[in-house]
Amino acid sequence: DASEALECARILGRMLETERALLVSDHRSDVLEHLINASRALTNAFSPEQVYEAVVKSVCHFAPLRFSALIIQDNKTGIPMIAHAIGENGLQCCGKTLFPGASLATMVLKTPSIMPTSRTWTSQNGPLLDGGMGPVLSTGDPVVCIPLMAHKRVVGSLALVGSARFENEAVRLITLLAGQAAISVEHAQTLAELQIRATTDNLTSLDNRATIEQKLNQSVARSARQNQELSVLLLDLDHFKTINDTYGHPAGDMVLRQVSRLLEDCKRVNDSVGRFGGEEFIIILEDTGDAGARLVADRIRQRIASIQFPSSQGTFSITASIGFSISGRDAKSPADLVKRADQALYQVKNNGRNQVRGYRDNSTTIAQSA
């Protein structure tokens, strides 16, 4: 009868409501699990690169995506860069710089607000990324760019292309994740900068003394295990004090920076260069004996002598003296290798400078250049 039908309808309604509640509960549980996993991934990431990858991968759990990219602003220059990208043409995008304000992804850095507001792309929005990077877009494609804010400062943005429309909840969750991601990015960048400051020379950007000594210890141990020779070069700029006194300390700093760049250009991938103190530099040549050390040292000496440095008083040049030692032959410990190279350098200084000398040389091997 009618009363029984009504009761059946009520029971069916309660069943449907319960089922709906269970579905929502399951969905909420999944979302919470994704948020917890994303938070753990960001917390466990240490280097900036690890954080960038964790951010991009975590976003994919909250919406179906064709493309996901993280754009980061350089702290010093402000130039945006694609830190990490996955999806269509994602691999080709990684590490590429972007022109500020020339795309949706970089406009978000200036606004900062979610763009486009419709969450769909049209040609009037402009490119997602400039330079033709990223996926090919058609009118109506799901697109959203979300800023990363940390302490009221924009540190980057997320550029996302969906395979389905972006639901309100998905955007809300991704925005929530972006807030934590921004803090993780900022912390990772700060730690990386502190690491650089702790290990490099502020003026020349070469390894500082502590770092290059650590590398020397490692190189000597490795060469001993592999039964290979290793050369240590000590280079001192001749009459550097006169440069400072005559042309000023800014000119002296310019000389140190340019010589540092030259030394970086001269070294091989496995070699190391550091500022040892003042106007003295150290070069570690892996798997290199006497002949190779002389060749490299004299090439460096000649190139330094050929540089014309500008100043308000006209151009000037400088020369370099270099002493070297060979592991195994001249010494076994890192400290003794440096000591032997320094003794060879001392002999060069006493013999007129602008020369190269090995620890075992009886006389200066390479004559003073003209």
Task: Give the helices and strands, then pairings.
Layout: H1 2-44, H2 48-59, E1 65-73, E2 80-87, H3 90-93, H4 104-110, E3 143-150, E4 153-162, H5 168-199, H6 209-225, E5 230-237, H7 240-247, H8 249-266, E6 272-277, E7 280-286, H9 290-306, E8 320-326, H10 334-350, E9 356-358
Parallel strand pairs: 8-9
Antiparallel strand pairs: 1-2, 1-4, 3-4, 5-7, 5-8, 6-7
Describe the structure.
By secondary structure, the chain is α+β, with helices and mostly antiparallel strands. It folds into 2 domains: 32-197, Beta-Lactamase; 209-358, 2-Layer Sandwich (Alpha-Beta Plaits), CATH 3.30.70. The protein has helices at 2-44, 48-59, 90-93, 104-110, 168-199, 209-225, 240-247, 249-266, 290-306, 334-350; strands at 65-73, 80-87, 143-150, 153-162, 230-237, 272-277, 280-286, 320-326, 356-358. The strands form 2 sheets. A 5-stranded mixed β-sheet has the order 6-7-5-8-9, sandwiched between helices. A 4-stranded antiparallel β-sheet has the order 2-1-4-3, sandwiched between helices. The termini are far apart.
Major β-sheet, in short? 5 strands, mixed
* Relative strand content: 15-25%
Share of helix among residues?
Answer: 40-55%
Unreliable residue stretches: 18-26, 363-370
| Name of the CATH class of the largest domain | Alpha Beta
Compute the CA-based radius of gyration: 31 Å
Mean pLDDT reading: 87
Number of discrete domains? 2
The SS-based structural class is alpha+beta
Number of strands: 9
Q: How is the CATH topology of the largest domain named?
A: Beta-Lactamase
List the strand order in the largest sheet: 6-7-5-8-9
Which CATH-level-2 architecture of the largest domain? Answer: 2-Layer Sandwich
The CATH superfamily of the largest domain appears as GAF domain
Question: So what's the overall shape?
Answer: elongated
Can you count the helices? 10
Run of helices and strands: HHEEHHEEHHEHHEEHEHE
End-to-end Cα distance, whole Å, is 119 Å
